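Hey team,

Filing this mostly as a record. A colleague (T.K.) asked me to run one chain through the structure pipeline before their review meeting, and I want the input and output archived in the tracker in case anyone asks later how it was produced. No errors, nothing strange. Just documentation.

Input sequence:
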Amino acid sequence: QVQLVESGGGLVQAGGSLRLSCAASGRTFGYTMGWFRQAPGNEREFVGGISWSGEMTNYADSVKGRFTISRDNAKNMVYLHMNSLKPEDTAHYYCAAGRNYGSTLRGDYAYWGQGTQVTISS
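Output structure:
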């Protein structure tokens, strides 16, 4: 079992930055970590993922070049660094743990946090 708790969301002006954190606990060894987001009325979509080692990352085209994922396995933490934020980035952001690095599919992630809200004002 893996437990995930996100934090760091808030209200930011367009063009600003924000860092989301995901604290993991339980049997976390070896898990790929992903970030997803869901805006009202939309499907939950993949934002980015990071391999267990942290050496490999992948991102959705909509955030590529603006968002960066990092992790600190010694602290059981995963981070989503978001820059040049746009109003369309407004969503509830979720951290998730899975075994298939590179997957953008919700079904490949077995564990989820409750999410944190990010709102970008124009």
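Quick notes for T.K.: The first strand starts at residue 2 and ends at 7. The chain has a mean pLDDT of 97.
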